[in-house]
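Appendix C reproduces, verbatim, an entry submitted by the partner laboratory led by Prof. M.T., so that reviewers can inspect both the input and the predicted structure.
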Amino acid sequence: MLRGAMPLTREECHVDDDIRHAHDSAGRLAAHTLHFAPVLDSGWCDAIGGELRWLLSAVGPAHDLEILNQIISACAAAMPTGDAGDRT
């Protein structure tokens, strides 16, 4: 029952846009920085990499909490209503 209530993709989780955009943008920039590191200045890559790691560690818990809240809300909405005493 719970598996059916859980979102299957990130697109189905409506995370607060500011948190989601900051997390996704930092992750993409970090990936692109690593990918293009051979042609970029190594000092710049190291500096921006440290800043992006900090940003992801700062925004990550809020992002995860937003997604967890969405999952728990979906699971709670899928639960049958009624008195707890009715369950056997």
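The first helix runs from residue 2 to 5. Additional entries are available on request from the coordinating office.
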